[in-house]
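S.,

Sequence below, as promised.
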Amino acid sequence: MAGLYGLIFDVDGLIADTEPLNARVTIRVLKDLFGVEGVSAEDFAAGIGRGAEAYVKAGARAHGLELTDEQAKTAAQVRERYLIEALQEEPLPAFPGVLKLIQAALDHPDFRLAIATSASRELSRAILESAGVPYHRMAYVSGSEVRKKKPDPELFLTAAKRMDLVPGRCVVFEDAPSGVQAAKAAGTRCIAVTNTVLKEELSASDCVCDSLERVDLATVRSLVDCDS
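The prediction came back faster than expected:
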């Protein structure tokens, strides 16, 4: 374990620019299922990174509708179907720097990699395939496999365990405040990218950047080893 480093990647908003599509599809779901009109992308802000049901509830709540857990679950299922259909018609490329960083780590014996996402296995796989991520060579934890979603640390703790690393040897890559909170609660380092929210909202992370083009394996090493 000593000398090894783990890279844990979120998916939505971190690997690919999914947030505009998430919002567009969820606006459609809220209208189709509940007749909610006038929903905007900004209405989902409180649900970003917290899983599909929290995302749907946030949009509805912004318009005075409190969804029950059962309603949110149904809406999330419809949303997932719409998203997968949209991804098949409109593939999303990876953000700049993502594939280069992943490939560099895969090619180096000192690094292990994991995907850790609140999205379901089916939806996250559709996004990863659309973006060209070699996820089959990485540990993989989806929202389908954990009891608690971000900001709870369970997702990242599970990812570290599957890489056979302690959390302190891992760096989580995130784009949402709830993800940063989960990473820090798990005891990992965290690099946040301003793909989704402003820098100020990610200040709890160890490092904030505007693109993963600015991050390399030396950055990961320095964050993990700084307390060694």
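The longest strand covers residues 111-116.

Coffee later?
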